[in-house]
Amino acid sequence: MSPGPARGRVAGSDAGGPRRGPVRRWQLVRAGSDAVPPSTRRFMARARQRRMRAALPWAVAGGVLAVAGLVAWTVLGTGLFGVREVRVVGADLVTPVEVRDAAAVPDGMPLARVDLAATARRIGVLPPVERVTVTRDWPGTLVVTVVERTGAAVVPRDGRYAVIDGSGVPFRTVDGVPDGLPVVRVDAPGPDDPGTRAALEVLAALTPQLRAELTELTVAGLARISLSLRGDRTVVWGDATRSPDKARVATALLGRKADTIDVSAPDVVTFR
Predict the structure, then answer these.
(1) CATH hierarchy code of domain 151-271
(2) Residue 208: what pLDDT?
(3) How far is Cα of residue 83 from the mean position of the Cα atoms in its chain?
(4) With respect to CATH, is domain 85-148 assigned 3.40.1010.10?
(5) Is the pLDDT of residue 40 over 90?
(6) Distances (CA, A) of 14 to 6, 20, 229, 232
(7) Residue with more model confidence, 131 or 75
(8) Domain boundaries, given as residue ranges, for the chain
């Protein structure tokens, strides 16, 4: 009699194969705030604060740079603050139009980009201008302040008169002799001319009484300077040395009846 099937064996299974256990499925679940210890929460909060404090200066610096860049671009790169007006102050011998033409600043040029020193140099080339200052008046005005030359004497030239200032610069030509300016006769008036400098030195030393009588100063040579006074009188001055002493002696002799007073050697005066 054949033995029957063994008990305890499950049909359809291999008694010799590995046994399979139950399958586990994992799932991540975020823990609630109560699950984190207070000390850990405090540590994490302090860490966040440190990160924010460390990043704050960089954020502020970035914002400042961005604003500065925007302002610089607006001022330097656009016509929003461009030149709208060139205001001229102190000009009398030159016209505002001449000053603006000499300044050569284009309309609409950003005011911040105007080279003030270069603009002043261009205006200073005008003969009547002694000094010039150029400043900005925001948002769109360039202010040019002019100091003009003051006449010290006139020099006859070709039927007219060249007005020279105290340094000998000819800066104006007029048809007649302006009131209060003496006539000076020199060959080549100019700031580098020795005769012009000698004449101006003598004029600066004259007393008010002598200057009131003066009609003309002639420089025939550096040692041949003479003054023509009212009443056809002449003062022989010589050179420009010791001019204050010569002026004092000549003033003292103005009351003498003499056509010529020679003060070229002020210690030994002659007159005739």
Answers:
(1) 3.40.50.10960
(2) 96
(3) 16
(4) no
(5) no
(6) 13, 12, 152, 157
(7) 131
(8) 85-148, 151-271
